[in-house]
Write the structure tokens for this entry.
Amino acid sequence: DAKTTQPPSMDCAEGRAANLPCNHSTISGNEYVYWYRQIHSQGPQYIIHGLKNNETNEMASLIITEDRKSSTLILPHATLRDTAVYYCIVRVETGANNLFFGTGTRLTVIP
Amino acid sequence: DAGVTQSPTHLIKTRGQQVTLRCSPKSGHDTVSWYQQALGQGPQFIFQYYEEEERQRGNFPDRFSGHQFPNYSSELNVNALLLGDSALYLCASSLGVRNTIYFGEGSWLTVV
């Protein structure tokens, strides 16, 4: 079962930062936070992941709270092509490490 | 650098038939997983193959089976198709069982 809670939908104005929250209050010490997104009718696309430190790559930034019970994915300058369903997933790096997808957040970028 | 590739992209089968879906992992990857995504839902894990053996399995009946070949490519077989098997079938690959998982674009299966 999914171990994360995300808002079902969010809107963001084009060019503004999109901040997508995720609650994972039961996360274990050896579980990473992964973010994927799925644009309509396509396969999920890996965005970023982290354990406890904030992470940044060419797509996004991931901010994890100090207690690791929640995180925020930040798309710094949202474009229309960022409209998608965003999934926050906790995943252990040892043993059973398949991905459990919840219902995600449907982000709509508005022109 | 080729990503995860799947075939066919779309197919239609009749209830009771059997289907085989194929997947080539991302270059350098040796672990393949399969997911089923019904319309409006998130992907659900079917099983994972590593070193040509099924390593993990989700809550799917034995009608769902798979295979991994020495070149790391994989097949998903579904027997005795039901209308409820209509879904997007996603293949994903990684280097080993612990690293980041990358997905293909999927195979759309419609059972009529």
